[in-house]
Each structure stands twice: as C-alpha cells, then as structure tokens.
Design brief:
Blueprint (H helix, E strand, L loop, with lengths): L3 E5 L2 E12 L11 H11 L2 H7 L3 E10 L3 E6 L2 H13 L5 E7 L4 H4 L3 H6 L8 E5 L12 H11 L7 E4 L5 H9 L5 E4 L15 H18 L19 E6 L12 E3 L2 H13 L11 E5 L11 H12 L7 E5 L6 H10 L3 E3 L7 H6 L3 E6 L8 H4 L5 E4 L10 H9 L8 H8 L1
C-alpha cells in the first residue's frame, strides 16, 4: 500500500490506495513507477482531463481520506501577520496551522493591542505560536546558534511541517529557519511592492557573494546541514525554492512567479468576519475623513517640511469643519515634524495604531481617501473596503518621484498620481 498526499481545490487528502488499470497491460508491469501513476491521478482530478483519459484507462479506483496538513507561517511584520491570518482562515481553515514570529516589527506593542494580540495567538486558530524574536541574530548572543537550532528542531521539527509560508524570502533568518527544519521549498505571500517588481533592488555580484558567505558562516556555527534549500541573497521574491506566490493582485506581477495564486475578496472577508464577530473591528470615525500614511519624506529630503505641509493643507481643504485628517506616523518620522503639522493643521488627528491600515478600510464607512507617497496600502482599498476609497500618491510632488515601475504597478491598481494641488481636490470631489 502506498501512502501519498495530493491537494485539489485547496483541500488536502492522503491517498491510501491507488489502483490504475490501463487497457494496455504493460502499464501494470513493475517497471512503471508509482510516481508516474500518481502523475496520471493528479491529472485525472481535473474533470475535463478525466473524461479525456477514460478512453485510455478502463478503470481508475482511488480512495481518499481527508488529511489535515501541518502549515507553518513565518511572520516579520504586522502586514505579514494580517495576510497569514487571512490565508489560515480563508485557504487552510481545516489544517493544523502554526505561527513563527521572527524579529517582528513593533512586537512590543502587539500584546497591548487586542486585535494584534488575537491574530498572533492560539485564540484565532493557530495550534501553537513560536516567538523566535531574535532567532540566529546578533541580538541573541546569550544562547549559542547551535542551541537555538536544536530548540527549533525539538519543537517545530517534531510537528513534521508539510507547507511553509513566508513573506520575505531574502531575510536570512527566515531562510535559515526553513533550512533548520530540513525543508527544501516554501510558499511566498505578499510583502509589498517588492513582491511585484524586484529588479531595481538586485544586489551586485560582490554584495551578493558577501551575504552568501555571511549566511554560510551562520549555517556552519548553527550546525545547519541542509544543502538543498536555495539560499537567496540577490533580491526579494527571487528564491528558486519558492513554489507559489499568494498575492492580492497577481495580475500586476512584473517578475517571474512559478505559481501565482490570488487572495480573493471572498477569502479576505472570511477573516474579516471573524474579527467582526469578536468585536475587534468597530467603527470609530463619525465624520468624513482622509487617512494619511506618513513616510519619512522630509527626513529623506524628498520633501521640505513646508512642501509636505502644503500638500496636507490641500487635502483637508475640501472637508468641512467636522472632517478629519488622520495622520498615521511612520516609525522614522521625527517628533518635531509631527508637532509642526499639528500646530499648523487643527483638524489633524494622530492615528498611532499598530494595526495594518487595510483594516480601517473594512469598517470605516466615512473614510473617503487614503494618501501616501509609496505605501503599498494604497493598492488594496478595493480588496478590503465595501465602498469607494480613493487612493492618492503624492509621489509627483516630491523632489525625487518614485521608481517608474512601481508607479506603473500602482496606477494599474487604481492609485491616482496628481501633479498639481488642484488635481487633488478634483480627485476627492
């Protein structure tokens, strides 16, 4: 009896018995591999192909038993966390899902935020959480690298993980975790604009070699012997070990993907409805509002502080006195800049939540627009919202507009790129 697994329509099965009888009796000879028979079975799972194959096979008998796959989601950012939650609820709800947190951004704030705490815990359905906060990092020098790997092998390794999902396939620690588990491939999920186009971020051959040597050194000191996993040091979303890409808008991809899979609105809504049912998403904006996703534009000399202020003032100009401009600071924003904007714009309200901005789209009916320079969140208003939210980039006002490929992708996603301040008002109203 052969024991194998297949997946069809996002449903996983183990096949305990498989008898394939061909009219040509040579098919039954021992030199015909079971792998070949399995390939035929996989193709026959498609109804159309099954009908076509009936003329070649007099009988196809297979017994399916439902099998719960063991999936590991590797998360580094709040956006990764949200996407993993959506995948676990929308695609793999019947499976055993596990969560590994590797140097997660802003992790110290997650515990104090009820929603973030929920989707990073077993409460939302994960079987177990593995907080590998400083895994194989210079920040954790008290525990030897070899010991850290052994701990992972004795915990996650005992679960016999079937599928790994991760956002960043160039992050050394993400790749080394997969290698530690003796797994040779993984599924990617979206990690922002670099998931759509990555050529302009490709490292030089010399820089790539430096990072390969660095990772090789860590592998050696950690006692990781997996040599089959491809270690990516070139650019984001470029690993040869990536076997699929779960994307919100795969139709916009401008790089190679072995298997792009769309995260549909229906799948998103399954996860969102779970959050709503537990009262994690409640409407708080009572008047028309514009969300501004700040980036360190002044700090990076892309804007003068007066230029960015002028843009913000023009955003709020069409709103009545009850309207609000919600300002979501970037971690690298200076306090002086924020204080200056607050002083000059009375209707500006600081929105400091660690939650991904996409969740605001799902619940805030009075949110009429989201504005930023290059935030990927501009691309998802139609995916997460049930009403029209205008997405506006201020890139064309900057000293250095965004890279043309990114602009092209965002425009195809429905993002507006005004080049005059009056155009902002026209877009909004």
């Amino acid at each position: 009896m052969h024991l194998i697994s297949v997946s069809t329509d996002s449903t996983n099965y183990k096949i305990y018995e498989c008898f394939i009888i061909q009219k040509n009796k040579k098919f039954l000879h021992s030199n015909i591999s079971f792998k070949y028979k399995l390939d035929i079975l996989r193709r026959c799972l498609n109804i159309d192909l099954y009908k076509k194959n009936l003329k070649n096979y007099s009988k196809i008998i297979f017994i399916f038993v439902r099998y719960h796959m063991n999936n590991l989601f590797i998360v580094n950012t709040p956006f990764h966390l949200l996407t993993s939650f959506i995948l676990s609820k929308g695609f793999f709800t019947e499976d055993n899902n596990y969560l590994a947190l590797i140097h997660p951004h802003g992790y110290e704030k997650w515990a104090s935020n009820p929603l973030m705490n929920y989707i990073s815990s077993t409460q939302c359905g994960y079987k177990e959480i593995f907080p590998l906060i400083h895994f194989l990092s210079s920040r954790n020098k008290t525990v030897p690298f070899k010991t850290q790997v052994q701990q992972v092998q004795n915990s996650i390794g005992k679960l016999h993980i079937d599928n790994v999902f991760l956002g960043s396939d160039i992050d050394p620690q993400n790749q080394l975790l997969v290698a530690s588990l003796d797994i040779n491939n993984f599924n990617r999920f979206e990690d922002g604009l670099y998931s759509y186009y990555n050529e302009n971020r490709r490292r030089s051959k010399l820089d790539e070699l430096f990072h390969k040597l660095k990772i090789w050194s860590i592998k050696k000191s950690a006692g990781i012997k997996n040599t089959k996993l491809y270690i990516n040091t070139s650019t984001a979303s470029d690993s040869k070990s990536g076997i699929a890409d779960y994307m919100y808008k795969p139709e916009l991809l401008q790089r190679f993907s072995p298997n792009p899979i769309v995260i549909t609105k229906d799948k998103i809504n399954i996860a969102i409805n779970d959050l709503k049912s537990k009262n994690f998403l409640q409407q708080k904006i009572n008047n028309p509002a514009i969300l501004y996703l700040s980036q360190p534009l002044v700090e990076q000399k892309l804007f003068s502080i007066e230029e960015e202020l002028h843009c913000l003032q023009n955003l709020i100009k069409p709103l009545n006195k009850q309207g609000q401009l919600l300002y979501k600071p970037h971690p690298n924003d200076s306090k002086d800049k924020i204080n200056y904007f607050q002083e000059k714009i009375p209707q500006l309200k600081i929105f400091n939540s660690i939650e991904p901005a996409e969740l605001l789209y799902t619940i805030e009916d009075n949110l009429i627009a989201v504005v930023s320079y290059q935030s990927t969140a501009l691309m998802y208003t139609d995916k997460f919202s049930n009403h029209v939210i205008k997405a506006i980039s201020l890139s064309d006002f900057a000293q250095s507009p965004m890279y043309y490929k990114y602009k092209e992708i965002m425009q195809n996603a429905g993002v507006y790129f005004p080049n005059r301040l009056n155009d902002i008002i026209k877009i909004l109203y």
